[in-house]
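TEACHING EXERCISE
Course module: macromolecular assemblies
Task: Read the component lines below, then compare them to the predicted structure of the full complex.
Student: A.B.
Group: 4
Components provided:
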Amino acid sequence: MNIITGNDLKTGDVIWWTGLDWSRFVKDATDVGDHGEAILHREEAARRVNAPYIIDAELTDDGPRPGHIKDRVRALGPTVRPDLTLKPADPDAGEWVI
Amino acid sequence: MYQYDQYDQKMVDTRVEEFRDQVKRRLAGDLTEDQFKPLRLMNGLYLQLHAYMLRVAIPYGTLNGKQMRMLGHIARKYDRDYGHFTTRQNIQYNWIKLEEAPDLLAELASVEMHAIQTSGNCIRNISSDQFAGATADEIADPRPWAELLRQWSSFHPEFSYLPRKFKFAVIASDTDRAAMRLHDIGIQLVHNDAGELGAKFFVGGGMGRTPMIAPEIRDFVPADELISYAEACLRVYNRYGRRDNKYKARIKILVHELGAEEYTRQVEEEFAHMKELGLNPPVEELARITEFFADPAYDEQASDELDLSDPDFALWVDQNVSAHKQSGYAIATISLKPRGGIPGDASSAQIDLMADLAEQYSFDELRVTHSQNIVLPYVKKSDLYALWQKLDEAGLAPANLDLITDSIACPGLDYCSLANARSIPLAQKISERFSDLGRQRELGELKLKISGCINACGHHHAGHIGILGVDRKGTENYQLLLGGSGAEDASLAKITGPGFTEDGVIDAIETVTDLYLAQREKGERFIDTYRRVGMEKFKEAIYG
Amino acid sequence: MVDAIRLRDDDVHEEPAVSLESFLDQSNATAVRIEAGEDARQLLPYLDRLSLIEVSFPVFGDGRGYSSAQILRESGYTGELRASGDVLVDQVAYMRRCGFDAFAPDSPINPKHMEEALSRYEHVYQATSDQRTPIWELRHG
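Instructor-supplied answer key:
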């Protein structure tokens, strides 16, 4: 699947396009198929996202899993500070990244 | 240390307001990201892996308790309660909000701090020797010269859109504690035959994709020509540095492609023109700055004796405490490399404690080292025990300065969008594997440096043992390098051979350290044995 | 492109700027344009004759034009020195300091923002072509 990610302009939060708006959680990311460019440009121009780009992701039971480890780190948070990730209570969250 | 006058203060305050206006225009859509990016970079604000990252400048690594306390406050109020000290003596925060950045910078300005030019294609923080002003082996304190260059380079209108970033280091001893030869411009203060103080210029060093040791360009530049000479070096670079390829845009490539002789010729030609232009501050200005770096009010009666009956304290003194030029005093290094910890990170509580300790025990001064540790430069020997006890309570007293667990590690793929591999978990695992202090001390001085990508922010080319993280078909892989040094015996590490998994490279490090122990001759450090024995033997041991 | 913004009192120079190559061929042009990678020093023998030198900024990140401007002013050029191309309001203050006194940006610059940018910094650390008194001189008189 193709999903769009970027950062919130004001806060810098990593965000994912849900089809309607932007979520901090990659599980909410929607497949944009071939239409990503148009969406991305529109959203960036409206300043609802900063520096967006399209990535390849695999649809798994846990939801979309970005193809590149870099975006998986972005999706979760630093593997070396689990307390600062989006899943601080889950000790195995880092496994999903690697 | 230097204190702002009304002019310095006005400059940083104005810069805050300028940036506030630029942020407002960005949020309103009057500036695109492409237009805004170089402006925010010149204020140290990156868009990084998790959020905006802010790099705050700590000029030549020197700060006082009040400033340190502000860094702790910033961590708590604007970030996630910790900061990361970098290989350029700065501090980084990883979770800054753009909309809060102007207020943050205003708070920094209130204690004479800023994030000006800590990124962007301009002149960056000028680094120096963390023992400056306290060590017996310097011919003068290099920091007044660094301060003169800092002011000259700040808001420089001609050099704010260079081909690439530009880094200076200034030292004043033959012992190089600042990796001076691996900078775009490295300066060593020297005396001429008449006994006058001047600057020896080395230009064209650097790490990154193509590491190079800077050649000497000029053996002596007097104080009153320092600025015009630096101008000449920069102007030649600004005009002729490559702009066609980001990875060939540093001055080291220009110096290498022209040859040091031709680059020098061009600089001297430009300098001959520039020295007549009235660019140089009068010598009174360097004298004015130098007064701020006078010795603290040492207690001349301070005892040089030290009670080492506490064995843990004795180990810490042996490893982390360095000789001071003043009798009765010592230089203490606070290691930010606890067992299994993240190199260079400090919590806001630890930062506050270090601020307090500096005020109490070090004439209110701290230094950041390029190895990501903190130095208290003016500690009375009779205070060392009390200091150590407080550090130990806070996890700030690992006795591992310059040992294998005192590694440099870049933020790596956990934090940095440029990275190919994570570097911190590797540093943590090595720290655990070699946690036995006896074993570490047996190995002795061993500078381990880890980079998560070829940009080499972890200085792996300058490691006695260096590790480079790479992306091998989508998985993290690690190359092992040996034989580098960022000290006065500067050399570039060489790769051993095919790369390893994370566990594989740690095993390889053990193989290499075991070989050192088997091969070493009396007094040899790891790097010495490696240089004598050669790469082949190490390769054989690793790869069989 | 929009009309040039000029910080000079004299009249706009009417003659169009020729390329450096043409200029060095012709002996009577009074306006020349140099590209980012061209050597401003080639104009030094002709400064008396020149009323307008236009320096190109193909992208605002290409900072070679700042050195070109400084070199020309340091060598005594007093005519119009115009920065043209990808010139944004956030660069004009530094351009002014390097000796530019006219701007021909690809996109319009809001005059109010420009005024703010040019007057924002009360002090300067370096001695440059705009002849402003650097802070070190204020300190030591």
